[in-house]
Amino acid sequence: MSTGMMSLHLQEISAQVEPEAVAVLIRDGASWYQPSTMLAVPGNIRLLTISPYSLQLNTIENVWNYL
After folding, report:
1. What is the DSSP string of 8-55?
2. What are the φ/ψ torsions at residue 46 (nearest 5 degrees)?
3. Contact (CB, 8 A) for 40 and 11
4. CA-CA distances (angstroms) from residue 29 to 14, 15, 18, 20, 26?
5. 0.85 cut: is pTM over it?
6. What b/e readout covers 32-49, taking b as 16+ CB neighbours within 10 angstroms?
7. From residue 24, how far is each of 20, 41, 53, 59 by CA, in Å?
8. Nearest 5°: phi and psi at 37?
9. pLDDT digits over 7-47, tens only?
10. pLDDT value of residue 11
């Protein structure tokens, strides 16, 4: 994954959002979509970052616990 690929992914999501609607995406702390990167976030998408200390909110963490 890279910032460029994440930007393309966000563009694809943006194209599926109804006019006048906004998509809210929950993200973890991965480096390719941090505010300091050159991530292109379309105007109809909002990024919500979960706290790094709230592992229960990141669903993949539940998988790791199960394994």
Report:
1. HHHHHHHHHSPTT--EEEEE---GGGSTTS-----TTEEEEEPPTT-G
2. -115, 135
3. yes
4. 21, 25, 28, 28, 10
5. no
6. ebeeeeeeebeebeeeee
7. 13, 11, 21, 16
8. -90, 175
9. 899 999 999 999 999 999 988 777 666 666 688 899 999 98
10. 96
